[in-house]
Amino acid sequence: MKQLVLFERENPQEKIKHDIGARLKLEISGDEKPKVRLYRDGTFIKRVDFSDRVAKRLFIVELIEAGAVKNRLATVLNMSRQTFHNYLETKKYFGVEGLIQGYTPDESRSLRTQRKRHADKRPRGNKAQQVAEIRRNKNEEKEQKQLCFNFPLPANEIEEKIEKHEQPFCEEHEWERTRYAGVFVYLIALINQCKWINILMRYFGDGYKIFMVFLLLVTRNIRSIEQIKNVRSREAGIVIGIGRVPARPLAWKWFYSVARRKLSEILLISYFRYQILVGTVGIDIWFTDGHLLPYTGKENVHFSYNTQRQMPVPGRTNLVTCDSDGRVVDFEIQEGKGDLRGHIVKLWHKWAKDLPEKPINVFDREGYGAGFFWGLVQEEIPFVTWEKHIDSKELALIAEDKFTGEFEFNDKKYSVFEGEKSFTYTEEASDEKHIFILRRIYIWNKSSRRRTCGLAFTDKKQVSTIDCARIILSRWGASENTFKHLKDRHPLHYHPGFKLEKSERQEIKNPEIKDKQNQINRVNKVLSKLYKKLTRTGESLTKDGKPRKNSMMERVKTSIQEEENKLERLKIEKSELPEKVDVSTLENYKSFKMIDNEGKYLFDFVTSSVWNVRKQMVEWLRTFFNQENELVDLFYAITNCHGWIKSTKSEVIVRLEPLQQPKRRLAQEQLCRKLMSLGALTPMGKCLMIEVGESPL
After folding, report:
1. Helices (H), 226-339
2. Can you list the residues of the chain whose pLDDT is less than 50?
């Protein structure tokens, strides 16, 4: 009887593990009869003997379906991508039987015997040719071509089968009136742009329902789950496809069932990668900024910074990256003030494999620093930012004829010219000095008669001086309206399901340093008074013309000497103190708590999705409505329309009430026709339709 091997003895020499994407790695051993070991995140998953051809084929198909990159896999296994494609197509049209029939898994059995056994079951002929013929004859819809994107599930997660009665818009009903008909506009755009419901159902099964509730909260600016008690549950539920909006206890039950899965990180990565690959967001210029998420509870948390109040407040920082049109590319929530510099470097490494070239990173003065600039230059990451510590008097002396470049931006006239600025960075560890030069962009706002400067490093990119100036002006000042607008229209700061746990960051500035500094300040004040007193005190002499030993001046000099000695001692004691200490070593200090971001990430996934499709729909609406100052308000007027909804076996129809003004109504109708042309479908295959008209009741 063959014994089961429980433990394998590893080769003391570390073997090479080949990265094939999706957190998977392969380790190959043996030449004539190779054996392949599969790892995920460093954990051993399975071993496959490649001398067994059937096991090899099944294993390759399994890897590709799990998200492995075909190019890398082909290089590692020394096979062609066409072979992989044939395997996948064979399984698609003929099933697993198509992969294994006609091949012997055991050398003791003849190939002829195997084929006779399965002759009645398998199709005749060459399967590769049959697959090619099917591909040629397959009729694809020419009106709507979308890039197919695979959202891989993490290990140990199984895609759930959802019952028919749990599917979105499964209910069939006649025309019903609803106050929330305008929400359907967002839903059609989301389903068309990224198959939004399909993504959620793949990751969370019937848990997708809580995201539909979040969609209602975000689009109607309902500030919390607690406020859904004010929503007409039936009218809202039929528009978002769940029949009826749940009561508060059931909504929280739905939320916690989804949050316990801890899939927000992989959900966001998959969604953001999809946006980059299909071109939903721009990849040429990325603007990164931090936004305060305040905390008003009683627990001790790290402090962030409130720019409006100009003071530190308890909370977190949401570091958000947008493209040049204001669409959200990526975001990350960090404790306390957050690390903007580290986030920008991390951003490039995170998406490097998905980007054809490095985008230009734009950030504000918070990222200013020679050390940070040197790191970006070494990484060859292009950037544009404002210059800090500008001498306005020096800029005012620059002759006007030097500003040779002219352009207009936001209805303001600007003039620019370019210079250079040298930086010197000294490494603390080695005391090595690095000298480098950045482009210095001089900007003159002729409308406000103000001058300032920006810095740029564009590496190999050909970016003109005017373009650098436009880039830096396009997100700050009068143009910074993305998050101000988002905060007004949507519940940006809402965090469902607050959970706190002990933070890993328990270090604070040493309070003894502050005490020592206070003592130093007091000694300096005393010395200042003594110096003044010494200047006002006359010298007292004896009869012999010598200074009196016990005179006022001598006593003041003695006091000054004592205070100076004390000051020197305090400075030495302060320099010997550690800059930071752990709060657990101090008395009367509470340990820091960390806010769990799982619920916030899930909610902000919906917020960013809605924001990005809103940007797209406003662009569509712009072609039908030429009054720019009323464009956004018109869009929100359309999405807040009342209307009627009907659901049949094959389609879901929403009819919006027409707007009163003829010009606005025409734009409303044109937008609905545009959405109709997308051909959005539910997972069950129902067609989503929207129109404008009078009451059908």
Report:
1. 233-240, 248-259, 264-278
2. 1-13, 102-108, 139-149, 155-159
Same domain, 181 and 126: no
Q: In this structure, are 441 and 535 located in the same domain?
A: no
CA dist., res. 329 & res. 127, Å (int)? 43
Q: Judge whether 472 and 384 are in contact, CB under 8 Å.
A: yes
Helix orientation angle between 127-137 and 81-100, rounded to the nearest 10 degrees:
110
Pairing of β 18-21 and β 24-29: antiparallel
Quote the CA–CA distance of 29 and 11 in Å, as a whole number.
10
Whole-number Å distance between alpha carbons of 70 and 86: 13
Residues 685 and 576 in one domain: no
Q: Give the closest residue to 29 by CA, choosing from 4, 8, 58, 7.
A: 8
The answer to whether residues 120 and 38 belong to one domain is yes
pLDDT for res 85: 83
414/515 same-domain check: no
For 559, how many CA atoms within 13 A lie in the half-sphere containing its CB?
Answer: 18
By residue range, what is the domain housing residue 51?
Answer: 18-137
CA angle 183, 185, 191 (to 5 degrees): 105
Q: Are 302 and 505 in contact (CB under 8 A)?
A: yes
- Helices 53-65 and 81-100 cross at an angle (nearest 10°) of 120
Q: Any bridge partners for residue 645, and if so which?
A: 176, 654
Question: What does the pLDDT read at residue 550?
Answer: 75
Together in a domain, 26 and 89: yes
Q: What is the pLDDT of residue 11?
A: 45
Q: What is the pLDDT of residues 400-420, one digit of tens each?
A: 999 999 999 888 999 999 999
The structural domain count of the chain equals: 4
628: DSSP letter: G
Q: What integer pLDDT is reported at residue 324 of this predicted model?
A: 87
Judge whether 665 lies within some domain.
Answer: yes
Let me know whether 133 and 235 are in one domain.
no
Q: Is position 235 within any domain?
A: yes
Element (H, E) at 567: helix 552-576
Spell out the alpha helix ranges (H) of 18-80: 53-65, 70-77
Residue 468 lies in a domain: yes
Residue 407 lies in a domain: yes
What is the rounded CA–CA span in Å between residue 496 and residue 211?
A: 12
Domain end residue (candidates: 535, 565, 591): 591
Residues 469 and 541 in one domain: no
Predicted pLDDT of residue 142: 34
Helices 631-639 and 662-677: crossing angle in degrees, nearest 10, is 70
Q: What is the pLDDT of residue 148?
A: 43
